[in-house]
Design brief:
single chain; alpha/beta; about 40% helix; five-stranded mixed beta sheet; 7 helices; two-stranded antiparallel ribbon
Length: about 210
């Protein structure tokens, strides 16, 4: 049977590189149920209710501000060591459709503990709706993803093992979501120390794990 050969798009090549970098990361999953009824009421009272991703990102920033372990990276090359960051940087997965193809890109969020929740939410929504070339985090990642495979592997190796650069390009934690696909559990892998997945067991009560 003769099929059709199709090139791998840059966004999907980015995810392939991300999966390659995550393949040997030890995985431990923790699920915790939270009573968020007070939060549901407060959110419902807002004139423009913020998205759950923005709420979780800001909450994580605030907790990590007092818990250095949540902003500490492990660098394994050229020798194993811990690298504590002075502040958090979040990477939020953004589902988009580019050139009639579903894809996932990563939006960089910084200073969420200092900025209003509305600004965090606006940054996430901007990444969903703005042209890819207008989002700095997307532009940098796709520019690097356009390089030949050997250069990309070298770039990822350096980026993941130089503490300052790793924080700039990969963040100190990641947030992904399967809520748009209904109930279920998502066990995602990432190259960073913490990757939080938000799921939705019900129409109005998302859980975070």
């Amino acid at each position: 049977m003769r099929g059709t050969a199709r090139n791998v798009s840059l966004p999907r090549r980015l995810i392939a590189d991300l999966m390659h970098a995550s393949i040997r990361v030890p995985f431990v999953s923790l699920r915790r149920t939270l009573d968020i009824r007070p939060l549901l009421k407060a959110r419902a009272m807002a004139a423009q209710p913020p998205g759950w991703a923005a709420i979780f990102v800001k909450a994580f920033f605030l907790v990590a501000k007092d818990q250095p372990v949540l902003r500490t990276l492990y660098l394994k090359w050229p020798w194993g060591r811990f690298y504590e960051l002075p502040r958090s940087i979040g990477m939020v997965t953004i589902a988009r459709v580019e050139n009639a193809e579903d894809c996932v890109l990563l939006q960089r969020i910084s200073a969420a503990d200092e900025n209003p929740l509305s600004e965090v939410d606006a940054a996430i929504h901007y990444a969903k709706d703005a042209p890819v070339a207008k989002v700095p985090a997307f532009r940098k990642m796709l520019r690097a993803t356009a390089l030949p495979l050997p250069l990309r592997r070298l770039l990822w190796l350096v980026g993941l093992n130089v503490g300052r650069q790793r924080a700039n390009y990969f963040g100190s934690f990641g947030v992904t979501s399967a809520a748009a696909y209904g109930g279920g559990e998502l066990h995602a892998l990432g190259p960073g120390p913490i990757l939080s997945a938000m799921t939705s067991p019900g129409p109005t009560r998302p859980s975070m794990s």
